[in-house]
Design a protein that fits this description.
single chain; mainly alpha
């Protein structure tokens, strides 16, 4: 009579915090300002988004971004100016004029009157201060702007502060990012910015699931 042999359960792979930090920093950079067509083409040639630690190849959000960047990279020289105009207009509609009604700032989503620079913004500023940080130009890009919040999580991960990164994600980013991403995905006029919104949500969700629960 044979007996089954018990083996140790496989260990979960530890999250490489430095690599995860790089993922968040790259996304912060893309949300911070307009990027030109040639830069986005080079980003794709360099392996983005397939090289992201927190987004596996084959995920819908990864595939959407892969396809959006592939199209940008293949655009001929005579079409690049028109594509650049489309990208710049879409960026403005999301991040500057709020034409899409999809603010990249936490306060607008959480404040009762949907105003900027309200309680959530100051709460985020306090989080930065506790780590000796401050928004470089809060009048131009508010403390609770998506780019700043992503960059802050990247900073926490780079410093090994996994528990604080999870707490900030729970208390701030994931309180509004799903709604922002959903609205941009629905209303963006370019595939790139729709894909960027979806990919950002996917990466942050993946990170949230892999970090220890905040106490």
């Amino acid at each position: 009579m044979s007996t089954s042999k018990l083996e140790p359960a496989p260990q979960a792979t530890a999250l490489p915090l430095e690599a995860a930090s790089e993922d968040l920093a790259a996304l912060a950079w893309l949300h911070e300002s307009e990027r030109d067509v040639s830069t986005l083409g080079r980003l794709h040639a360099g392996g983005f988004p397939d090289g992201l630690t927190l987004a596996r190849p084959g995920m819908p959000a990864v595939t959407d971004m892969e396809q959006a960047l592939a199209v940008i990279r293949q655009v001929g020289a005579e079409e690049q100016a028109a594509l650049q105009d489309d990208l710049d207009a879409d960026f403005a509609g999301i991040y500057l004029t709020h034409a899409l009604r999809a603010s990249p700032c936490e306060s607008v989503w959480l404040d009762e009157e949907n105003l900027m620079m309200q309680g959530p913004s100051f709460a985020v500023r306090d989080c930065y201060r506790r780590h000796g940080l401050a928004a470089a130009n809060w009048r131009h890009i508010a403390d609770d702007h998506l780019a700043n919040e992503l960059a802050f999580v990247a900073h926490l991960l780079a410093g090994g502060h996994a528990d604080e990164a999870r707490r900030f994600i729970d208390e701030h980013l994931m309180q509004w990012l799903p709604r922002f991403a959903g609205r941009v995905t629905e209303r963006a006029s370019t595939r790139f910015y729709a894909a960027l919104a979806g990919l950002t949500l996917q990466v942050v969700e993946s990170l949230q699931q892999r970090l220890p629960a905040s106490g």
